[in-house]
């Protein structure tokens, strides 16, 4: 795997220190196509739609600062899942195992200050500040299909920039073949952390998967910063894979020579493969993957056939050419 | 317990057992179900949970009435409650078949509205292989269906005339299958949740207590057989 070298790394900073936001920006000013300015946290607050929460009256949609985004070609025309559903139906086990738990419990997550540690097989291990990472590239708004292994799906406008951009900045060594993501583990902020799991949550990708233009380093959805339950302040989105591959609230990105162990794969290897590409041909022991329930604004379920690679075959099928996806599910 | 108060209690129990279903209808009518992120999932869990709760309530009657002869009248409500367990189990099964399995209910109902009721069958034919596939492959569905079949048999044989026709011994033997149904129900729950999720532990604990109570009672009765048996014998003789 050939990776483009990052130019001008600048003065070396001890790995124990956080790269200041200004330094992170300075060295990459030349590579910027746009100045996003204070897009991340600036802008006026938008009044969020107040939909009556009849089933979970404790939840309220809070007005949040809007993200400044640019449109993207990677957008599907499907009808979008309502904001309220995408932010009240989440799998984020650190905040409870019920779908409604994260929205109720994740307010304890502190997203500023937030740093992401870059380590492993990189030229210069360092710790990056979230605001610096957010300003590094213009934030694109991409409407992606999102397919959960539990056979439901959503259509969500995610806001972020290609993961490949950050990876290039991290400057991994040629020996790095895999990238591992780690979610925050803090029992104080996550009092509902269930037992029986090998925390922290980790997930991994092969380097060429991570460099695919579809892999999105995500900071927001629906034009505003990620709600805590959706993985604030930084997560990845891999629309051709089942949702659980997309690590939330990332605190560490590690480059490895060997395939890293991942939480779900360790817990139930026969149920959750390392690749976990959306594949209607390969059943999960509990859920047929041939069709999915599209979560939209209606009461009756819209059942639709599931597409290979969640419909993103044109962009990603080549990554797996020659592989038996029934074995490497 | 007077006849009148038994009737009043039965009416109250009907209302109590129907309350969850009424609540579900209420959520549908006021639009809350459409606002729920995954209505089908909600209905499935709701009906599944209430099947288990009511099944456990049915199983609680025997240990409870053994606590005191004054509440032995509780047994008169056992069949009524048990039938509601079957009612919620059937709603649960119907939810799976028509909303969860991949059955295209939107197209089927659209057909009905357009004057083509055959669409219900057409969609059924489309999804039938997937349901068979589920049945053959997924053990949580197999064990869940086993529980439903048992509850169906118990409900079908619940009228007094069938009990008489079957003979008390046979009827009782068949109705002991409720233990299998309850255990199958709990296993169904454990097998459907994801690895590491422990949601079913409360239902499991209650079931374990109810089954243990029976074992303890039987053991206690065996050791205390002589004295109470003699007393009862004497009492009945003197009558």
From TrEMBL, chain A:
GO terms for biological process: protein repair. Predicted to be exported by the Tat system. The position of the signal peptide cleavage has not been experimentally proven. Binds 1 Mo-molybdopterin (Mo-MPT) cofactor per subunit. Its EC number is 1.8.5.-. Gene3D superfamilies: Oxidoreductase, molybdopterin-binding domain (3.90.420.10). Residues 1-18 have a biased composition (Polar residues). Residues 1-21 are annotated as: Disordered. InterPro entries: MsrP (IPR022867), OxRdtase_Mopterin-bd_dom (IPR000572), OxRdtase_Mopterin-bd_sf (IPR036374), TAT_signal (IPR006311), TAT_signal_bac_arc (IPR019546). It catalyses: L-methionyl-[protein] + a quinone + H2O = L-methionyl-(R)-S-oxide-[protein] + a quinol; L-methionyl-[protein] + a quinone + H2O = L-methionyl-(S)-S-oxide-[protein] + a quinol. Mo-molybdopterin binds at residues 90, 93-94, 148, 183, 230, 235, 246-248. Residues 112-264 form the Oxidoreductase molybdopterin-binding domain. Keywords: Metal-binding, Molybdenum, Oxidoreductase, Signal. Part of the MsrPQ system that repairs oxidized cell envelope proteins containing methionine sulfoxide residues (Met-O), using respiratory chain electrons. Thus protects these proteins from oxidative-stress damage caused by reactive species of oxygen and chlorine. MsrPQ is essential for the maintenance of envelope integrity under bleach stress, rescuing a wide series of structurally unrelated cell envelope proteins from methionine oxidation. The catalytic subunit MsrP is non-stereospecific, being able to reduce both (R-) and (S-) diastereoisomers of methionine sulfoxide. Belongs to the MsrP family. HAMAP family: MsrP. Heterodimer of a catalytic subunit (MsrP) and a heme-binding subunit (MsrQ). NCBIfam families: PRK05363.1, TAT_signal_seq. This is Protein-methionine-sulfoxide reductase catalytic subunit MsrP.
From TrEMBL, chain B:
Its main location: membrane. It is a multi-pass membrane protein. It is found in: Cell membrane; Membrane. Its cofactor is FMN; heme b. InterPro entries: Fe3_Rdtase_TM_dom (IPR013130), MsrQ-like (IPR022837). The chain crosses the membrane at residues 50-68, 80-99, 140-162, 174-192, 204-220. Residues 48-186 form the Ferric oxidoreductase domain. One of its GO terms (cellular component) is plasma membrane. GO terms for biological process: protein repair. Binds 1 FMN per subunit. Heterodimer of a catalytic subunit (MsrP) and a heme-binding subunit (MsrQ). Part of the MsrPQ system that repairs oxidized cell envelope proteins containing methionine sulfoxide residues (Met-O), using respiratory chain electrons. Thus protects these proteins from oxidative-stress damage caused by reactive species of oxygen and chlorine. MsrPQ is essential for the maintenance of envelope integrity under bleach stress, rescuing a wide series of structurally unrelated cell envelope proteins from methionine oxidation. MsrQ provides electrons for reduction to the reductase catalytic subunit MsrP, using the quinone pool of the respiratory chain. This is Protein-methionine-sulfoxide reductase heme-binding subunit MsrQ. It comes from Edaphobacter paludis.
């Amino acid at each position: 795997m050939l990776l483009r070298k990052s130019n001008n790394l600048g003065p070396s900073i001890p790995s124990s220190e956080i790269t200041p936001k200004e330094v992170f920006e300075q060295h990459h000013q030349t590579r910027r196509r746009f100045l996003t300015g204070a897009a991340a946290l600036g802008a006026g607050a938008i009044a969020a739609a107040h939909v009556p929460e009849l089933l979970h009256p404790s939840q309220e949609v809070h007005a949040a600062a809007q993200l400044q985004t640019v449109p993207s070609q990677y957008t599907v025309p499907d009808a979008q899942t309502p904001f309220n559903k995408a932010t009240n139906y989440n799998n984020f086990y650190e905040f409870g195992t019920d779908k409604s738990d994260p929205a109720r419990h994740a307010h304890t997550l502190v997203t500023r200050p937030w740093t992401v540690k870059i380590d492993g097989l990189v030229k210069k291990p360092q710790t990056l500040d979230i605001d610096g990472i957010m300003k590094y590239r213009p934030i694109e708004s991409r409407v992606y299909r999102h397919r959960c292994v539990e056979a439901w799906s959503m259509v969500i406008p995610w806001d972020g920039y290609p993961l490949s951009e950050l990876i290039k900045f991290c400057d991994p060594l040629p020996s790095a073949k895999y990238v591992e993501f780690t979610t925050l583990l803090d029992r104080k902020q996550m009092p509902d952390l269930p037992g029986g799991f090998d925390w922290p949550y980790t997930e991994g990708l092969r380097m060429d998967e991570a460099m695919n233009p579809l892999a999105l380093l995500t900071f927001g959805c629906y034009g505003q910063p990620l709600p805590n339950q959706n993985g604030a302040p930084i997560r990845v989105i891999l629309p051709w894979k089942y949702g659980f591959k997309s690590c939330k609230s990332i605190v560490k990105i590690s480059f490895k020579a060997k395939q890293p162990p991942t939480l779900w794969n360790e817990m139930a290897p026969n149920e959750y493969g390392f690749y976990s590409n959306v594949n209607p041909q390969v059943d999960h022991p509990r859920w047929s993957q041939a069709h999915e329930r599209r979560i939209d604004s209606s009461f009756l379920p819209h059942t639709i056939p599931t597409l290979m690679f969640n419909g993103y075959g044109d962009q990603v099928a080549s990554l797996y050419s020659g592989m038996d996806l029934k074995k490497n599910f | 317990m007077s006849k009148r108060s038994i009737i009043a209690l039965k009416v109250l129990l009907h209302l109590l057992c129907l309350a969850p279903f009424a609540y579900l209808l209420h959520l549908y009518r006021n639009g809350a179900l459409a606002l729920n992120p995954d209505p089908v999932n909600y209905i499935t869990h709701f009906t599944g949970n209430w099947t288990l709760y009511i099944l456990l309530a049915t199983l609680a009657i025997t240990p409870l009435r053994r606590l005191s002869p004054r509440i032995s009248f509780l047994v008169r409500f056992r069949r009524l409650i048990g039938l509601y367990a079957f009612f919620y189990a059937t709603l649960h099964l119907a939810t799976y078949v028509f909303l969860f399995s991949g059955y295209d209910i939107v197209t089927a109902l659209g057909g009905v509205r357009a004057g083509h009721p055959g669409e219900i069958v057409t969609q059924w034919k489309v999804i039938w292989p997937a349901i068979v596939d589920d049945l053959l492959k997924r053990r949580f569905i197999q064990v869940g269906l086993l529980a439903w079949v048992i509850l169906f048999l118990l409900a079908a044989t619940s009228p007094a005339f069938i009990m008489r026709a079957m003979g008390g011994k046979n009827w009782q033997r068949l109705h002991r299958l409720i233990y299998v149904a309850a255990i199958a129900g709990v296993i169904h729950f454990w097998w459907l949740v994801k690895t590491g999720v422990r949601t079913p532990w409360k239902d499991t604990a209650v079931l374990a207590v109810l089954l243990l109570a029976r074992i303890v009672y039987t053991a206690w009765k065996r050791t205390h057989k002589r004295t109470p048996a003699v007393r009862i014998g004497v009492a009945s003789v003197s009558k």
